């Protein structure tokens, strides 16, 4: 049933048929999935021959080959049975009927009921708020995956939920080190991911919150304020609500940051993924007297891949590569130059590594020299340096060379246009282009 608009149907598409000796057919029985990791050396092609399948909530068109880039990990799930063709080698693949999809879908259905109630209730600001779901749990518990499912199913039903990504280590909207949000109006593309053009992006600049906890909290608060402003004027976004993805850091300071996010975004439902008895206990205790916050513990899918630190590092690199060159190397990155006077680079937080607690929000100018090579800089919309922390960013550049003699900087940009602003933010994020 659709509460926010029309449902979509994917029956009619056709695509070119290509066969290679590596093409194999896979039959999936009802409520089962094939879990795949694409190898590092080559992409993988896949198409649906019969039946309906989805990748993390996004239904695939029948008979259309999709190309998945190296290292992508995903599951193709079917509710009623399906046949697929896979062209290429997989690093791993296995099918399973043991999935938590029924419980995940039932969460979606109850969120739709809440959205429906909001739609048919009075129009005042408080009673017209849709559900705000925050997903918490350990690293590799499937948080981002569940977020994608809830977003895609809601978008398929015609809603426009807002995705909030607080996971600076493995960001889903754009490059790592960002705190961002975007309205999701279409099911999430299984290859391209989330659209970036309407996103509100703040640059934290580090892939771990411990580098500057005060700044992390400040940016979370800033983003929440911006979304409240948007919700105040956009009834459709307001009633569709939010799905918030978090870092997989749930103890000590990480737990405090989760509490902070739950409160700042006024979450109505906290989904704890995995066997997190202590976390569930602590959250229930913390929100005992808040009847408008529900805590729910859901099973982690056994299909979620566990990613070691080197693999995570590689994924961060790939995420930056995707920003400049597209998911399947389908975009052009432009090499350009700028004069030293065209770029003012700043850091947030004084002497981060040595004195983490002192002046975490101080804006310090960075001398332009060879140390900038290999760094990723955010282009800030700030008009003045002191507005940097409260401003979103326009995008990112990657510094490839600094010519001290000619006073020129060479950088890579995803756009051929001139730089949209002069103020840049530097963090600790680097990229080793391959
Ligand atoms: N059922 C599944 N089958 C195959 N792969 C899956 C499945 N569920 C999740 N994955 C993959 O497992 C990896 C980890 O999942 P996900 O990113 O959702 O975890 P997470 O809890 O958000 O991790 P982190 O907090 O560390 O960023 C991802 O590459 C995801 O695509």
Write structural notes for this entry.
This protein is an alpha+beta fold. The protein has three domains: 23-98, Clp1, DNA binding domain (Jelly Rolls, Sandwich), CATH 2.60.120; 101-298, P-loop containing nucleotide triphosphate hydrolases (Rossmann fold, 3-Layer(aba) Sandwich), CATH 3.40.50; 332-430, Pre-mRNA cleavage complex subunit Clp1, C-terminal domain (Elongation Factor Tu (Ef-tu), domain 3, Beta Barrel), CATH 2.40.30.330. 23% of the residues lie in helices and 28% in strands. It contains seven helices and 23 strands. It has helices spanning 101-120, 143-156, 213-233, 235-240, 253-264, 277-286, 309-325, and strands at 23-28, 32-37, 44-51, 54-55, 58-59, 66-68, 73-78, 82-87, 92-96, 132-137, 162-165, 178-183, 200-203, 242-245, 269-273, 294-298, 334-339, 344-348, 363-365, 375-380, 393-403, 408-413, 423-430. The strands form four sheets. It has a seven-stranded mixed sheet, with helices on both faces. Strands 17-22-21-20-23-18-19 form a seven-stranded mixed sheet, with no helix packed on it. α1 (101-120) crosses α2 and α3 (213-233) packs parallel to α5. The longest helix has 21 residues, at 213-233. The radius of gyration is 22 Å and the shape is globular. The model is unreliable at 5-18 (pLDDT under 50). The structure holds adenosine-5'-triphosphate. Adenosine-5'-triphosphate binds at residues 35, 73-75, 137, 139-145, 167, 170, 248, 301, 303-305.
Give short descriptive properties of this protein.
binds adenosine-5'-triphosphate; seven-stranded mixed β-sheet; alpha+beta; 434 residues; 23 strands; Clp1_C; nucleus; Rossmann fold; mRNA processing; Jelly Rolls; Elongation Factor Tu (Ef-tu), domain 3
């Amino acid at each position: 049933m659709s509460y926010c608009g029309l449902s979509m149907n994917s029956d009619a598409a056709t695509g070119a048929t290509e066969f290679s000796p590596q093409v194999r057919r896979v039959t999936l029985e009802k409520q089962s999935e094939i879990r795949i990791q694409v190898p590092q050396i080559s992409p993988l092609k896949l198409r649906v021959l019969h039946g309906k399948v989805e990748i993390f909530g996004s239904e695939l068109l029948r008979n259309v080959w999709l190309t998945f880039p190296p290292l992508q990990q995903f599951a193709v799930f079917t509710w009623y049975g399906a046949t697929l063709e896979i062209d290429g080698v997989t690093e791993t693949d296995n099918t399973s009927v043991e999935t938590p999809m029924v419980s995940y879908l039932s969460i979606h259905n109850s969120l739709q009921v809440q959205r429906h109630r909001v739609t048919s209730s009075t129009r005042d600001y408080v009673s017209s708020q849709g559900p705000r779901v925050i997903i918490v749990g350990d690293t590799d518990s499937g948080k981002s995956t569940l977020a994608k499912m809830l977003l895609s199913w809601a978008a398929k039903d015609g809603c426009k939920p807002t995705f909030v990504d607080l996971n600076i280590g493995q960001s889903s909207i754009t490059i790592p080190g960002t705190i961002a949000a975007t309205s999701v109006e279409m099911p999430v593309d299984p290859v391209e991911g989330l659209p970036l053009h309407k996103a509100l992006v703040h640059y934290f600049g580090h892939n771990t919150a411990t580098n500057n906890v005060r700044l992390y909290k400040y940016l979370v608060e800033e983003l929440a304020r911006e979304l409240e402003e948007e919700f105040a004027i956009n009834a459709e976004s307001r009633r569709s609500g939010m799905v918030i993805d978090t870092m997989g850091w749930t103890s000590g300071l990480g737990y405090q940051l989760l509490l902070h996010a739950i409160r700042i975004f006024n979450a109505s439902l906290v989904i704890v993924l995995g066997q997190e008895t202590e976390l569930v206990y602590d959250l229930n205790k913390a929100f005992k007297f808040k009847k408008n916050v529900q805590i729910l513990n859901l099973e982690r899918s056994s299909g979620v891949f566990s990613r070691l630190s080197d693999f995570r590092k590689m994924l961060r690199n790939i995420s930056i590569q995707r920003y400049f060159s597209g998911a399947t190397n389908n975009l052009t990155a432009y090499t350009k130059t700028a004069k030293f006077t065209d770029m003012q680079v700043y850091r947030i937080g004084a002497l981060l590594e040595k004195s983490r607690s002192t002046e975490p929000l101080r804006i310090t100018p960075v001398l332009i020299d060879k140390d900038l090579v290999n760094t990723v800089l955010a282009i800030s919309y700030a008009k003045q340096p002191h507005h940097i922390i409260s401003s979103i960013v326009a995008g990112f550049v990657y510094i490839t060379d600094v010519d001290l003699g000619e006073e020129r900087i060479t950088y890579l940009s995803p756009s051929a246009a001139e730089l949209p602003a002069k103020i840049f933010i530097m963090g600790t994020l680097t990229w080793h282009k391959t």
